[in-house]
Predict the 3D structure of the following.
Amino acid sequence: MAGWRLLVVQPLMADDSTPDGDPLLAVDSLGAGRGATVMISSDGRFTREQLGSDLTPVRWSVIGIRD
């Protein structure tokens, strides 16, 4: 995971303000900043491919940043 930023992200409901569950830990290669709204994916296979390791426990990854 060298070179990857770890983010604590809070999933939100459709109203963009109500929390939807507990905060999650996600890897980020896109450079999201503090307070940014991001899109995350729970596709563990994709994340393992991006990290180049089949042994990583990482499940969540940032796949987009809202403009």
Q: What stands out?
A: The helical segments are 44-51. The first strand starts at residue 5 and ends at 9. The two ends are 26 Å apart (CA to CA). The chain has a mean pLDDT of 91.
